[in-house]
Design brief:
alpha+beta, 23% helix, 4-stranded mixed beta sheet
Length: 321
């Protein structure tokens, strides 16, 4: 019996079968229904400091006061007020409008077999969030290096150990030391945080003293998780400052400059730094006039904020030198 004549559906112009690529040329690739987008970076600093929204203006002032003193009263003497409580303020300016934008050409969008607008919108938001987190992280470290807001108050603090980036137990000890510094400055114990990069986080997660519940540890070795050190909530961030930032980026109206190459961690309470928000994160799509001219759509994500130091005594930098 003769073999059947096959009309090969994947071959162009009924050509002879030669190789896999030619034999399957007309077959569509199977679309899995999923699009692998960039991983969203963990944004950890935004909700761990003071945030103020203003409806108008170019900056915001944060007033600060210092302590009163007590004394024994001498019988018969009038009480006329002996305290002169010190006042000062920190001003945070609004940086220029920060944007992330992308253009989508109609013809290419028509040819594409999955929707990209929601994906692009999400990625623009992620890019803006990273920029915010990066600047807040720098501001927290700069707060630890700053002098007191009020003349009689306290400035920031630091703990130095050459092995703070490479030894989990030493880093844990430095976080304890940082908390001691905060305690000695009468910084309240609640809402304290310690931020580290992933490399230092996993060094801490392998430290027996932080995991062993018999020693008061709280963590799960199997899951690679560590929750607290010295009663301080531990946060892991790819946005921990780690480079030497020698110049401002055009549009920055506050200072985010510093050499962070030796920074291993920063321990802080939320009053250490603040953000002033004039325009919250928003997404915009171009209108019909733009579409007629360019035959495509422009998508823009934007916000207008500024970050600054508030209470330096609420921050301690852990560094290697």
């Amino acid at each position: 019996m003769a073999n059947a004549t096959i009309s090969n559906l994947g071959v162009a112009d009924a050509a002879a079968l030669t190789n896999w690529t030619a034999d399957n040329a007309l077959f569509e690739e199977q679309f899995a229904g999923e699009v692998l987008t960039a991983f969203e970076e963990s944004v950890v600093f935004a909700d761990k400091h003071l945030m103020r929204t203003i409806s108008s203006g170019k900056s915001a002032n944060f007033p600060a006061t210092w302590k009163a003193t007590a004394r024994y009263h001498t019988a018969g003497t009038p009480i006329v007020g002996s305290n002169q409580i010190e006042h000062n303020q920190r001003t945070i300016k609004i940086d220029d409008l920060l944007i992330a934008d992308v253009f989508i050409y109609d013809l290419e969008e028509a040819k594409n077999h999955y929707d990209v607008r929601s994906i692009y919108s999400n990625e623009l938001g992620v890019a803006l969030a990273k920029e915010m987190d990066t600047r807040i992280g720098r501001t927290l470290v700069l707060a630890a290096r700053a002098s007191a807001t009020v003349a009689s108050g306290n400035g920031g603090g630091s703990v130095t150990n050459a092995s703070a980036k490479t030894d989990g137990e030493i880093l844990a000890g430095a976080i304890f030391d940082a908390n001691q510094i905060l305690d000695e400055k009468d910084v309240p114990e609640g809402e304290r945080y310690a931020a580290v990069a992933p490399a230092q986080y996993y060094l801490l997660a392998q430290t027996t003293k932080l995991l062993n519940k018999d020693w008061g540890g709280s963590g799960v070795y199997a899951d690679g998780e560590i929750f607290k050190v010295a009663g301080t909530s531990l946060v892991k961030s790819n946005n921990m400052p780690s480079t030497n930032v020698i110049a401002a980026t055009t549009g920055e109206q506050n200072s985010y400059i510093g050499d962070f190459t030796n920074t291993a961690s920063v321990v802080w309470r939320k009053e250490a730094a603040g953000t002033v928000k004039l325009m919250d994160l928003a997404m915009e799509m171009s209108g019909p006039d733009f579409h007629i001219m360019y035959q495509g759509h422009m998508m823009v994500g934007k916000y207008s904020v500024g970050h600054g130091i508030l209470r330096p005594e609420c921050a301690v930098e852990i560094k290697t030198a």
